[in-house]
User: Which sequence fits this backbone?
């Protein structure tokens, strides 16, 4: 690996350390980073990013969805645009790298291109999306939906815990939400969208690899299941005649875990439980569970759903328990574009590394951007696979590897462009 990539990587590390301080929490290493859409911390991040972009000679603007966009312009007439970026917002007490890494590393790429006077036949727009996590307004993928043209104006009426609507927050932030539709990119002007993100899992670390190429972004579905039993005195009702809703819930949890363990490319969790009457000496009458299933292949996820519901029905019926079920959320999987994934794998090989292809079990801005253009993702190794937690950590050397891969991707896309 060439040492010429290290200055850009060192700069990326310094930038990451700086932006971590723009948080509602005071100590990002212990309390994590909390940064929500259209807040003072969001403004501070955009001011810092905008300043660094201008120092790199980029043209900078904020759109009406509070996305910050910096353009590294090509001298080629009629050039298309390669979009690079990720989200600036975090979950409460999140880590220092989820999201923002995918903004900072593209800026390090621009630094490398500038330092080495490399001209490209396409523009590069680096985007800091305003809101992917949905922490403040439950408005998942807000920023990327604006660029992709799939933003629903009804989202503007969503309110935060203080009753402030998204519309009001954006207006106070200097945006004109009534003009969001004008901020959409034209598909014919876009070459592709590429996002760099920490893996949020342990696979790259287990295989001692700094980067990996993403094949797909997982599909997700969520269910609410309410089990109906019969309350009674826990000291007087014999065990063999009880209709204990919580015991039924334990069987449901076992069924979810068993199904996911026996099915390739499927993960799931029962993440939330509500129990009633919830007394120390009362047999539970109703227990409500959340069930989530994820897979990069929708056919696997949907087949698993059918199997799971059949098993749940059989198990609860045998225990003389009833249940109500509702599908509360469903997001189809998104496949990364084959040609862009191939170029990413080639760029990894160009960097002297073996290409590892894996799918993302988490959602990303590419879910929205896929309706605009072809998408690709590059994962960066993270320590222990930890994310959404103050313990999020990366290695500085991996930043060097990622910068090199991004440079090789640009060279490959330039050759591809010349061949068209």
Assistant:
């Amino acid at each position: 690996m060439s040492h010429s990539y290290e200055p850009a990587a060192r700069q990326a590390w310094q930038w990451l350390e700086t932006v971590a301080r723009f948080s509602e929490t005071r100590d990002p290493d212990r309390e994590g980073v909390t940064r929500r859409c259209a807040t003072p911390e969001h403004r501070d991040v955009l001011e810092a990013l905008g300043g660094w972009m201008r120092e790199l000679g980029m043209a900078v603007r904020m759109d009406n969805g509070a996305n910050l966009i910096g353009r590294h312009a090509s001298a080629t007439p009629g050039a298309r645009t390669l979009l690079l970026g990720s989200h600036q917002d975090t979950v409460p007490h999140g880590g220092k790298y989820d999201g923002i890494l995918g903004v900072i590393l593209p800026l390090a790429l621009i630094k490398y291109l500038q330092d080495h006077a490399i001209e490209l036949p396409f523009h590069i727009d680096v985007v800091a999306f305003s809101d992917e996590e949905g922490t403040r307004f439950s408005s998942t993928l807000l920023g990327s939906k604006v660029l992709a043209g799939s933003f629903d104006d009804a989202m503007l009426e969503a309110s935060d815990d203080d009753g402030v609507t998204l519309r009001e927050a954006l207006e106070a932030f200097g945006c004109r939400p009534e003009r969001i539709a004008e901020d959409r990119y034209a598909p014919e002007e876009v070459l592709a969208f590429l996002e760099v993100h920490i893996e949020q899992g342990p696979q790259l670390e287990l295989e001692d690899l700094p980067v990996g190429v993403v094949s797909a972004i997982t599909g997700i579905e969520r269910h609410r299941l309410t089990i109906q039993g019969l309350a009674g005195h826990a000291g007087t009702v014999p065990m063999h005649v009880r209709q204990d809703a919580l015991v039924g819930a334990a069987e449901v949890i076992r069924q979810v875990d068993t199904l996911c363990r026996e099915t390739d490319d499927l993960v799931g969790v029962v993440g939330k439980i509500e129990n009633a009457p919830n007394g120390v000496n009362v047999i539970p009458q109703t227990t409500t569970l959340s069930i989530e299933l994820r897979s990069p292949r929708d056919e696997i996820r949907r087949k698993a759903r059918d199997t799971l519901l059949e098993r749940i029905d059989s198990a609860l019926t045998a225990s003389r328990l009833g249940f109500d079920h509702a599908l509360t959320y469903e997001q189809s999987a998104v496949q990364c574009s084959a040609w862009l994934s191939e170029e990413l794998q080639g760029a990894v090989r160009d960097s002297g590394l073996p290409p590892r292809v894996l799918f993302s079990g988490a959602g990303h801005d590419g879910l929205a951007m896929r309706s605009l253009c072809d998408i690709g993702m590059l994962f960066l190794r993270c320590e222990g696979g930890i994310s959404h937690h103050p313990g999020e950590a990366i290695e500085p050397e991996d930043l060097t590897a990622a910068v090199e891969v991004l440079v090789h991707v640009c060279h490959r896309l330039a050759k591809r462009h010349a061949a068209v």
User: Anything to note?
Assistant: The chain has two domains: 3-217+333-419, 219-331.
